[in-house]
Amino acid sequence: MRRFPPERIVCLTEETVETLYLLGEQVRIVGVSGYAVRPSQVRREKPRVSAFTSADILKILALDPDLVLAFSDLQADIVAELVRAGVAVHAFNHRDVAGILAMIRTVGALVGANGRAEALARGYEERLVRVAAEAQGQPRPRVFFEEWDEPLISGIGWVSELVRVAGGEDVFPELAAQAAAKDRIVAPEAVAAAAPDVILASWCGKKVVPARIAARPGWDAIPAVRANRITEIKSPLILQPGPAALTDGLDAIVAALEAARAPVAESGGGDGRHRPWALSERHRAVLRKVPDDGWVEGSRLDGRCLDLLLRRGWIRRVHADPQGRARQDGYQRTSAARLALFPDGRPSK
Fold first, then answer.
1. pLDDT 10s digits, 310-337
2. How far is 155 from 144, CA to CA, in rounded Å?
3. CA-CA distance, 87 to 89, in Å (whole number)?
4. Among 67, 93, 119, which residue terminates a domain?
5. CA distances (Å), origin 31, targets 92, 105, 122, 244, 302
6. Residue 179 Cα to chain centre, angstroms
7. Which range among 25-29, 42-46, 221-225, 329-333 shows the weakest confidence by mean pLDDT?
8. For residues 139 and 165, what is the distance between their CA atoms, to the nearest angstrom?
9. First-last CA distance in the chain
10. Would you say the C-alpha torsion 166, 208, 170, 306 has a positive or negative sign?
C-alpha cells in the first residue's frame, strides 16, 4: 500500500463493505460490489465496480485505490489482474464463523481501527454464545440448507455452524467443510432419505420457489414438505460471510426453527400432525401437570419451562378460576398440546 491506513478502498464483496460501515470507516470506500446492499445507503453512496466473478478493471484503476479487498479463489483472476496493474490487494478466503470473526479483526487492523474491530467481533462472539445457550434443552430439528436448486447444493461451513448455534442439526454436516460448491452437490434422493424437519433455502440471489421444492419427485414424504416448513432466507443475509450472517441471517434461522418447534395453531393451518421432537421430556412432564379445564398455579410448575411453553402455544394464561375468582398465575393446556400429548385421543391425566 502507498498509504497507511489506506484512504481509498475498493470492496469486491459485500461483507467487507458492511464491516467498514460498522467500524465507522465508510469514508474510505470508493467502490463496491454490485451485490452490496448493507447498509441500505451504500447503493446511493458508493459506485459499483464489480459483480462476484467479474469486475470492471479499468473503472477500479480509475478510482486510484490504495487497497482492494477481495474474497475467495473465485476472484483469483480479478486479483491477479489488479496485482499485475500494481494495485495492493488483500484477498480473504474464509468459510466458517471463526473466519468471519478473523475477517472483521483484519479489516479493522488494515484501517487502523483495531479497538473498534475487536469490540465488534467480541460482541458477535458473545451473541453466538447467548443464542446457543437459549437453544439448549430444546428439540433440535433436522435441517437441510439448500444453497442452489439445479443442481442441489447444501450449505457452506458458516451456514452449517449457524444452524447448530440456532438449535438445529445440519443433515449434511460432512459436506459443510467443502469450500467449493461443486463438492457440496447432493442428490434429491439423498435429501429425501435424510428426512429433514426443516428446509431453509437461499438460491444465491435467485428467488426461492417453495412450491417447486415441494413438488420434487419423492419429496412429499419429507417431514419439512409435509408440514410446509420450507423457508427462504435472502442471500444477502446468510450467503455473505460477514456481519449479516451473524445477525440477521442467524435470526432468520432461529425464527424458522422456532416456528418448526411450535405446535399447529388452534385456529387451524398446517397439516394437523404433531411430531415427537416438538416436545422435550422436561416440557412434556410440565404439560402433564397442566389441566385441560380449570387451571394450575404457576408456582407448582417448573418456572424454566413456562415462558417457552407460552411462546409456542402449548399453554395459555387464565385470569380466573371456574368460580370467576381472579388468577394472575394460572395456566391451562391448549388443544394443540393435548393433541401432542395424546395423539390417539386418550384423556389427559
1. 655 667 766 544 444 444 467 777 765 6
2. 8
3. 6
4. 93
5. 17, 21, 28, 20, 56
6. 18
7. 329-333
8. 13
9. 74
10. positive
**Of 228, 261, 294, which closes a domain?**
261
Annotate 278-295 with DSSP letters as a single string. Answer: GS-HHHHHHHHHS-SSS-
Strands 198-201 and 230-232: parallel
State the CB neighbour count (10 A cutoff) for residue 286.
25
CA 226, chain centre distance (Å): 22
Report how far residue 207's alpha carbon sits from residue 193's, in angstroms, rounded to the nearest whole number.
26
Cα-flanking dihedrals φ and ψ of residue 288, to 5°?
-65, -20
Overall number of domains in the chain: 3
Phi and psi angles of residue 41, each rounded to the nearest 5 degrees, phi first: -70, -10
* CATH code of residue 179: 3.40.50.1980
Dist. CA 302–CA 305, nearest whole Å: 6
